[in-house]
Design goal:
The protein is an alpha/beta fold. It has two domains: about 1-310, ABC transporter type 1, transmembrane domain (ABC transporter transmembrane region fold), CATH 1.20.1560; about 330-575, Rossmann fold, CATH 3.40.50.300. Helices cover about 60% and strands about 10% of the residues. The protein contains 17 helices and twelve strands. Strand 11 (about 535-540) and strand 12 form a beta hairpin. The chain starts with 12 loop residues before the first helix and ends with a helix.
């Protein structure tokens, strides 16, 4: 599973390779130290050879300094490699998410994506750093130390031949039980992040409805669930420590008992037994490191799976890089178009037939869930149709280069998003090369001249989400941003719902006079927003119920007539 992430090391490959090499040097010096100490005790002090003691002591100091130098350098390189590895994973994940179609995005919740790019990547980073250091250090040190025990301790090696498999099986059993629990931890992280994101984004609503206590209860419940799963997993994994200590003490007792007999029998010297004690600690500390690595792998394995799920998800929409880049007209043709979200059997749109000429203004009415927003989203290929034909400018939308298509189809949503920065930087989303004059004209056409009344003008600060603007002001700024694209098709998805009727009229008048030969589709709840359209489309249950004009509907469509009269009466009452 980890091998799927290894290519993300990229430019940090050299650091990742040098780290274990330096680690081998550190281990070699650490294993050499007990051997030199045994020589000093047995051949130097034991035989009263002071020059020999001095000589080996210098080598001992040198080995210690080299071990420290190798360790520090390997730690530094490991930190660089792991941080770079995590950076590349985040970059690739973010790049992949940006390439997702709307249906791909619908599959992953924003809170889940945030958890994967933060907590999961951090777990993988720690596991990778531990891998290139401890995964080499621990096994190599254990092997080297066992070799030295075989050299100095003779038959004492059988103590470890019995102890190591027992400890390995114990740790393996604990990890197998703990791994599924760690998977549940990260699933609950998604829930926690989702609740936190919703509450912080909608904090005004929470306070307005005095829901602080309830939302705090939900947060605490999610947090407590994560804590409970972690405790449950750690209760299993913590058993590895006493298991190791138990085996460690058993080994010490066995070595002490057997070693004393060997010394008494003259088959082993005191310094050799001392070195075996040192190697015992190295072997068992290596086993503890391996246990920690396995625990980290158990935690990170769940994270790796979640990261790979993102990285291996292919966008289900072909961007058609070599497709047509010139949208010649704003003619729109729906021919027997059907569509369903996620390939479900029941279609959201069924046999849609609609033909719109360039420059026409089309009003779209219908109850909630009738398919209005779905219909217009297909024009910009936010989703692909299931069957039928959808053409823009006489060309199938799938035959266009996706970027070129969306540059010529501008959508203004009911709940559009402003980004932190300034009004100018937000308008530049529509056209990065727009001049100040073009921006001012777009603000005028969208009835957003209130910006110019501010001292900062175009440089007025926009807080996150545009929270320092009213709902109607945000909608008008989003309309201005859309106009700067100079699109062939301009879609308003109930995007004047937050402005008053007079402002709505002013915006429509400006669009009619200044936008030119642009095809306009207006989804609205107010009949007054679409009554003067060239055609009005009434939708119900994913189908086009009727197409006509205002005067015709007043005579033939009872629902339209009732809606018109009700809204006009409400308007007169408001004016009075």
């Amino acid at each position: 599973m980890f091998k799927n992430l290894i290519p993300r090391i990229r430019e940090y490959k050299l650091y990742a390779i040098l780290t274990p090499i330096l680690m081998v040097g550190e281990v070699a010096m650490e294993v050499l130290i007990p051997f030199l100490m045994a020589l000093i005790v047995d051949k130097g002090i034991g035989e009263g050879n002071l020059p020999y003691v001095f000589q080996k002591s210098l080598l001992l100091v040198l080995a210690s300094l080299l071990s420290m130098a190798f360790g520090v350098l390997s730690a530094k390189l490991a930190a660089i490699a792991s941080a770079g590895f995590a950076k590349n994973i985040r970059h690739d994940m973010y790049d992949k998410v940006l390439s997702f179609s709307f249906s791909n995005i619908d599959h992953f919740s924003p809170s889940s994506l945030i958890t994967r790019m933060t907590t999961d990547v951090q777990n993988v980073q720690q596991a990778f750093q531990m891998t290139i250091r401890m995964c080499f250090r621990a096994p190599i040190m254990m092997v080297f130390a066992i070799i030295m025990v075989a050299k100095n301790g003779g038959s004492l090696i059988y103590v470890y031949i019995c102890a190591v498999p027992v400890l390995a099986l114990t740790i393996g059993f604990l990890v197998k039980r703990a791994y599924p629990i760690f998977g549940k931890v990260f699933e609950n992280y998604d829930v926690l992040n989702r609740n936190t994101q919703e509450n912080l984004t909608n904090i005004r609503t929470v306070k307005a409805y005095v829901r602080e206590a309830e939302e705090e209860r939900k947060f605490n419940l999610s947090s407590q669930t994560i804590r409970d799963f972690y405790v449950k997993a750690q209760k299993l994994m913590v058993l590895s420590s006493p298991a190791m200590m138990l085996i460690s003490y058993i080994c010490l007792l066995a070595i002490s008992y057997l070693g004393a007999g060997y010394i008494a029998g003259g088959t082993m010297m005191t310094g050799q037994l001392m070195s075996v004690f040192s190697y015992n600690m190295q072997i068992l500390s290596s086993l503890m490191m391996i246990a920690m690595i396995i625990v980290m792998f158990a935690i990170s394995k769940a994270s790796v799976r979640r990261l790979i799920e993102i990285l291996n998800t292919n966008p289900d929409m072909d961007v058609n890089k070599d497709g047509i880049k010139d949208v010649k007209s704003g003619d729109i043709d729906f021919d027997n178009v059907s569509f369903s979200y996620g390939g479900k059997d029941s279609h959201c749109l069924e046999n849609i037939n609609l033909h719109i000429k360039e420059g026409e203004t089309i009003g779209i009415l219908g109850s909630t869930g009738s398919g209005k927003s779905t219909l217009v989203s297909l024009i910009a290929r936010l989703y692909d149709i299931d069957s039928g034909s959808l053409k823009l400018g006489g060309v199938e939308v799938k035959d266009y280069n996706l970027t070129s298509l969306r540059d010529k189809v501008s959508i203004v949503l009911q709940k559009n998003q402003l980004f932190s920065g300034t009004v100018k930087t937000n308008l530049m989303w529509g056209n990065e090369k727009a001049t100040t004059e073009e921006m001012l004209q777009a603000l005028k056409d969208s009835n957003s001249s209130f910006i110019l009344e501010r001292p900062e003008g175009l440089n007025s600060v926009v807080e996150q989400g545009g929270n320092n603007f009213s709902g109607g002001q945000k909608q008008r700024l989003c309309i201005a941003r859309a106009l700067l694209k100079k699109p062939k098709v301009l879609i308003f998805d109930d995007s004047t719902s937050a402005v008053d009727t007079a402002t709505d009229i002013e915006i429509r008048k400006a669009l009619k006079n200044n936008v030119g030969n642009c095809t306009k589709l207006i989804i609205a709840q107010r009949v007054s927003s679409v009554y003067d359209a060239d055609q009005i489309v009434i939708m119900a249950h994913g189908e086009i119920e009727q197409i006509g004009k205002h005067e015709e509907f007043l005579k033939t469509n009872e629902m339209y007539k009732t809606l018109w009269e009700t809204q006009m009466n409400n308007k007169r009452e408001a004016e009075v």
